[in-house]
């Protein structure tokens, strides 16, 4: 996984200073962010593999800058990213010992590790980082309390896996990207301290990951962080390591399939899998702040080699995930993912993913807009009412017939039924049943080309999506005062697909109001305990953390302005 290193070498030669990594988009170092720490870990790994002294020199520069940043963390108003930084130091320390770095530097790094703290975020990926960090430190220095803390944090993570195998990152947030990252952390945990319970959780999580991966190797199309290299490289690492643990080559094959999907973008030094990098389309503006590129390199360097392995054989698959209200069907010709969940803007329901690519419909929050461009929260497949999507953050109900899956939405002023016929032709039938007079545009979609439909659509301009600029197509606005139907042909396959046999049954574990209240109470108790101990041991960090947890939204808005 050393290929494409030349891109990062040129990047570092321009942006690495004695004060740390200079972020090109803001023209200065960002000491409290975690890019610099992953920079020294990447350089140390490259020196380990190549024995080229230039990487050792760059690593030492970054390490010293990071040690200084820890001491001066109160001088920067931004949040100090302890969990990511701790991980980098913990993975670095054995490399320093093995490769004969300066003894004083090693001693300083050890002191930094022994004095590590945490942000204590309640999101699952941060909890998983803390669990792994405590275990890594226990593995290095055999501190009994670290093992206890690690096990305690791990238990919290394992409770956040739903019945379908997905690890949710936060209440009502089902992100495929963060699922992959959590698995990457758990696999590293398992390598040090394996248990039967953890193995089952990882196996269930990997099974889910493979089932939602389409024929082209794309899985990161749902929830927060779609199309980011962060999620893809986490999955590549996870699957390759699980191959090493289980000796099942199928995992390594899927690791290679996902890598092949992102390889063209890696060669460009891309962070979001977007054809036009100048647009900087992404979930947040800081996606182009460079951390994710360095993260990707680190996790690729830590992955197992799959160059000689064959790609997986694409077989028919059909599965329903009740906890996500999601249906997936795969044949050798196509892959379709449908959902009626849609609680978040990043989880808009209906057609979530389709291969071969027909339509860009991943939804999402406002992004780094250019001029008068529309943000891709408008990137959905459905109808338009008052210039908005009436299904935005609404829950639909999935039903099935022999070759048909339907999603029905019972709204205040109408009922909408989207029926997907999965025969030789993939046909979507829309049915709109008004409860009052409606003035709507019955069909709206974002695609590279116009789809064949029984209702006339016109090109209405262009829109930025995570995959580049796409065309917007919409029908005329009409009055609907009685039930209406129309069809859209999504794909014409060469052969007839098998009937849908799934009964759309299973145990759902969707959050109820009671579960939501209990979760919030648990979160409050968690923060109260952490704040209390920080106040006693590290009062300055207590102030910083308290500010973070109370004003995080404001902080994120201010940070985005800087990019």
Structural description of this entry:
- The protein has 563 residues and is of the alpha+beta class.
- 42% of the residues lie in helices and 18% in strands.
- The protein starts with a helix and ends with a helix.
What class do helices, strands and sheet pairing give?
alpha+beta
Distance between the termini: 30 Å
Extract low-pLDDT stretches: 549-557
Structure summary, number of beta strands:
18
Main β-sheet: number of strands, strand sense, barrel status? Answer: 6 strands, antiparallel
Molecular shape: globular
Rg estimate, integer Å: 24 Å
Share of β-strand residues: 15-25%
Strand order of the largest sheet: 9-10-11-12-18-14
Mean pLDDT: 87
Helix content: 40-55%
Number of helix segments?
15
Please summarize what this structure is.
With 563 residues, this protein is an alpha+beta fold.
SSE order and pairing:
Layout: H1 5-15, E1 16-17, E2 20-23, E3 28-29, H2 35-50, H3 53-71, H4 82-98, H5 103-114, H6 124-141, H7 144-158, H8 176-192, H9 196-211, H10 229-246, H11 249-266, H12 291-302, E4 317-321, E5 326-330, E6 335-339, E7 350-355, E8 382-385, E9 397-400, E10 404-410, E11 414-422, E12 425-434, E13 438-447, E14 452-453, E15 457-465, E16 468-475, E17 478-480, E18 484-492, H13 513-537, H14 539-550, H15 552-562
Throw out a few tags for this protein.
18 strands, alpha+beta, single chain, 563 residues, 15 helices, globular
């Amino acid at each position: 996984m050393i290929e494409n290193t030349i891109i990062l070498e040129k990047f570092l030669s321009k942006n690495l200073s004695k004060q740390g990594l200079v972020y090109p988009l803001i023209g200065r170092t960002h000491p409290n962010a975690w890019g610099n720490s992953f920079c020294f870990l990447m350089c140390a790994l490259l020196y380990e593999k190549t024995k080229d002294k230039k990487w050792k020199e760059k690593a030492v520069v970054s390490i010293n800058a990071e040690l200084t940043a820890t001491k001066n963390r109160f001088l920067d108003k931004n949040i100090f990213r302890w969990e990511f930084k701790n991980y980098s130091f913990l993975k670095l320390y054995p490399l320093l010992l093995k490769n004969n770095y300066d003894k004083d530097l090693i001693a300083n790094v050890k002191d930094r590790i022994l004095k590590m703290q945490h942000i204590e975020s309640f999101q699952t990926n941060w909890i998983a980082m803390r669990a792994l960090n405590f275990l890594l430190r226990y593995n290095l220095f055999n501190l009994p309390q670290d093992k206890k803390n690690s096990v305690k944090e791990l238990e919290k993570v394992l409770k956040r896996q739903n019945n379908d195998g997905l690890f949710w990152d936060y209440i009502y947030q089902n992100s495929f990207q963060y699922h992959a990252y959590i698995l990457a952390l758990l696999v590293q945990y398992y390598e040090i301290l394996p248990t039967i319970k953890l193995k089952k959780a990882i196996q269930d999580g990997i099974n889910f990951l493979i089932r939602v991966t389409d024929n082209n190797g794309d899985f990161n199309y749902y929830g927060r962080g779609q199309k980011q290299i962060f999620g893809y490289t986490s999955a590549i690492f996870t699957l390759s390591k699980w191959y090493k643990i289980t000796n099942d080559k199928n995992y390594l094959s899927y690791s290679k399939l996902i890598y092949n999907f992102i390889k063209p973008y890696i060669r460009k030094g891309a962070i979001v899998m977007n054809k036009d990098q100048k647009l900087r389309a992404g979930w947040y503006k800081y996606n182009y702040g460079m951390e994710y590129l360095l993260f990707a390199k680190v996790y690729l360097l830590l992955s197992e080699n799959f160059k000689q392995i064959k790609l997986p054989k694409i077989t028919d698959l059909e599965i329903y995930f009740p906890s996500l209200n999601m249906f997936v069907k795969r044949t050798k010709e196509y892959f379709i993912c449908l959902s009626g969940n849609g609680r978040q803007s990043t989880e808009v329901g209906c057609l979530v993913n389709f291969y071969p690519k027909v339509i860009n419909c991943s939804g999402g929050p406002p992004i780094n807009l250019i001029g008068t461009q529309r943000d891709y929260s408008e990137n959905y497949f459905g109808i338009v009412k008052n210039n908005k999507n009436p299904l935005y953050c609404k829950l639909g109900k999935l039903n099935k017939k022999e070759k048909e899956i339907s999603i029905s939405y019972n709204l205040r002023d109408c009922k909408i039924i989207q029926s997907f016929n999965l025969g030789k032709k993939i046909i979507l039938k829309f049915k709109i049943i008004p409860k009052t007079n409606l003035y709507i545009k019955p069909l709206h979609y974002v695609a590279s080309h116009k789809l064949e439909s029984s209702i006339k659509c016109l090109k209405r301009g262009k829109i930025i999506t995570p995959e580049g600029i796409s065309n917007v197509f919409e029908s005329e606005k009409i009055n609907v005062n009685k039930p209406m139907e129309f069809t859209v042909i999504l794909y014409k396959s060469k052969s007839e697909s098998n009937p849908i046999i799934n009964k759309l049954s299973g145990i759902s574990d969707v959050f109820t109001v009671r579960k939501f209240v209990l979760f919030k109470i648990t979160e409050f108790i968690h923060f109260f305990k952490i704040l209390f101990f920080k106040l006693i041991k590290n009062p300055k960090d207590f102030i910083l953390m308290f500010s973070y947890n109370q004003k995080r939204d404001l902080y994120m808005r201010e940070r985005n302005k800087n990019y």
